[in-house]
Amino acid sequence: MSDQQDPQSDVKITVNPDCRDIFVDGVIGATVRDGIVRMNLVNIHTSPDGNELEHAVVGRLILSRSAARNLHNALGQLMGRLYRREDDGTRGTADSATTDD
Fold it and tell me: How many domains does the chain have?
C-alpha cells in the first residue's frame, strides 16, 4: 500500500493498491434507510443494437450519515473551486479536498 500524509491535517492516508478509478455519469436509485445512504453509480451506454441508452451500474456507494456529510462538504468545496476556475478562465488541477468528522 502507498502511504501519504495529508498536508492539511494530521491524517495519514493509505492507498490500497487494488483501488481502481471508476468513471460515473450519474446516480440512480439513491435511498436513505436507518441513517445509511445507498447510491447506485451508473455509466450510460448504448444498447448492443445502438437504438437505446442503457444505464449500467458500475458501483454502489454506501455511506454512514457522517460519511455522507463529509462527502457533501468535500463535493461542495470542489464545486466551488470548479466554478471559480471557470470564472477565472483557468484549468483545474489535481488538488484534493479532505474533510473529517
Answer: 1
Q: Distance (Å, rounded) from C-alpha 100 to C-alpha 56?
A: 31
* Contact present, 55 and 28 (Cβ < 8 Å): yes
Q: Examine residue 48 and state whether it is found in any structural domain, yes or no.
A: yes
pLDDT tens digits along 71-100: 999 999 999 998 887 777 655 455 544 444
Distance CA 75, CA 70 (A): 9
Cell numbers placing 52: 437505446
Prediction pTM value: 0.64
Q: Where are the alpha helices (DSSP H) in 1-101?
A: 65-88
Q: Answer yes or no: is 11 within a domain.
A: no
